[in-house]
Each structure stands twice: as structure tokens, then as C-alpha cells.
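Researcher: Next entry in the queue.
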Amino acid sequence: MEPVDRLSELSDELLTHVISFLSTKEAVQTSLLAKRYQNLWASVPVLDLDFDDFLPSYEIIEKMEEDEEGFREYDDKFMKFVNGVFEYREPLTLDAFKLGWVQDSSDPAPATTWLDTAAKLKPKIISAHIITENYTLEVPDSVFISESLEELELHLAYETIRPKSVNLLWLKRLTLNSVEIEDEVMKKLLSGSPALQELLLPGCMLNSGCISSGTLKRLVLDGSENEKNTPNILISIPSLEFLEVRSWAMGKLSFKDLKSLVWAHIRLEELSDGETFFLTGLSKVNSLELALSVSALKDMNNLLEKKNNQVSNL
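Model: Structure for this entry, 314 residues:
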């Protein structure tokens, strides 16, 4: 029996779908397989661009650690590739845009243009992981104004985001990792995302006094980077079902109107004087997990003796 080339029997549409699961570098490389593949990558609805894909082996990287000029060669290759992708790609809408650029010596200025270009292609998902040590990244306003975006993830090097306005009508999940968030920006993000259900803030520097929403169902709050700035934060979210506070350096936390809360996990280094948030604001939660330091545990035991009737479900 002669071998059958079933791959060639697939339609261009199905092949493009298969290629979309590859990184963009791998997708472009499929153009070398056969003439039929030369332009398929240009219609793929997912762009997955990662600087790490352009680096040499780990052994070579170790030798280059003190050589910024050596890394600049790979920066240039990466930038040339990404610019080429946008130049030769078909002007079609995107399902997802993923960008990774983690290199201390890199200047991420081109990423601002890439994010702006991608945002205008109406993706449902934008994920950007950009960490540099000596440069500042400006996140373009177009990222925060979208009629299509459902998931947005920004993992930055403690940059401050300053959108002029926020209009994300269909955004359901927002992840801000290692980002500095001012109170005014927090209010813009929440008021400008009327469908938001999940807000994840790992490692963020929070300068916000209140987190209030009528739609959020899940909140992850991590103030471990707030050692120099420990604001008092009020969380008032009637729709909230799942709450996780992963912090050893947060200021005083208080909770209001969490009437839908099902599960909460709280980790704290210490309790502020007279703090009874876990007895009042969380009094109706079905399941409460606490991770406390020794000193915080002693403070809690003292408070429990005084307030032992306020936690009705625990």
C-alpha cells in the first residue's frame, strides 16, 4: 500500500488553525516545508512572539551575561523579525497577541508600537510580559480602548500604567503583574470594564484606597511589593465569590458588602491595632483560610476572644 499524505488533504483553513498553536517563529518556519505553506502563516489569527525563542543555548547565554553587546545582537534579530511579521502579515483581525521580552539590557520602546498595532487588530486576548531594568515601557492607550478584548495581561517591571481613558466593554479577565497602580487608574479600570469578572493583581504596588465593582467574581490581591507604601484598602464588591489576599506587607484591609463571598484565603504578617476585618467584612463567607505569622496569630486569638460571635458561618 502506498503511503497517503493526509496532511496535504487538509484545507488551508484547517492547516492555518493547526499552525496557530505554534509560536510565531515556528509558524513562519513552516513556509519552508512546501510552496503551499509559504503564505499560510500570514493568515494565522494568533501572534505569539517571545524574545527567548531567539536566544542561543543556555551555555552560551551564561558566557554572555556580562556582555550587553552580545545580547544586543539578539535584540536586533528579534525586533527585525517582529517588524517583518507585522509588515507581511495579512491585515486580518487577531484572536490573540502574546509578547514576551525579558532582558535587562533591552530597550522595549518598539514594544509600544507593537502593542498599539496589535490592539487595533481587535484581538480577544492581549498578553505582554516585558521586563527590563534600565528602560521604561509606555503601554499605549489603544490597549485600554477596545470593543473586542476579553482578556488582558500585563506583566511589567513595576511600571506605572497611565491610560488617559479605559473603555473595555467586553473585558472579563484583567491580570496586572508587577505593576504600580494609582488610585485614579484603579477607578478607571473598574468603571471602564463593565463586564469584568476576574481581577488578578500579583506583585503589584498598590496606591489605591478602594477596590469597588458590581461585576467582579474573583479577586487576587498581592501587596508583597508594598513594603515602602502600605495603603489602607477597602474592598467593596457585592458580586465577589472568591477572594485571595497573598500579602505580608499590605496596610490595613477592610471589607464591605461581600454578600456573595463563598471562599476566601487571607495571608497576613500582622494585624493593625483593633483590626476586625475578618470578623465583620468576612463574617458570611462559607470557607475562610488564614495564613498568619506568629504575631498575627496571637493578635487574632485575642480578637477572637472578644468577637467570637461575629463570624456566623465559621
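Model: The chain has one domain: 48-53+94-307.
Researcher: Noted, moving on.
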